[in-house]
Write a structure and sequence with these properties.
The protein is mostly beta strands and about 150 residues long. About 10% of the residues lie in helices and about 40% in strands. A hairpin with an 8-residue loop joins strand 1 and strand 2. The two termini are about 30 Å apart.
Length: about 150
Amino acid sequence: MASFQAKDTLVLGRQLEVQSLKIPFVITGNATPASVVALSDEPAVLFIKTAGIDQITPALDVGESLPTYVSQVDASGTFSILLKIQEQLVKVVSAKLVQRAAVASVVSCSMANTTGISSSGSDIALNAVSGTDFATGGVLDACLEVNYITAE
């Protein structure tokens, strides 16, 4: 597979600076909020919080505060995301969910903590509104795609 690097030094610098991370995951809804199931290809990196399940709080580092997330609502598919990057972050450039179902769509993620960076400075905190109704057993099969810049 061929790769392309820009010839302009400023553009090349930006290409090399921005990191990309893509992690597939599935959230399977249930009428009982505590029975919703969230699984990912990288369970030590991607943590999810819905109305009834919380993978995020136990994943926080000692002394790290919980990011400022929107309220999680299963009926609208609103949930929170924490990515453990484990490097000092400078900026979250973009974040989106690419749904992989028969009727695929792309949904932008908003930044928690205003910048998308956790209080530790090394995790990415996001809010997502997927439109999938987890309260009636809906299934979200998607890939989280995040672009970010780390300190050198």
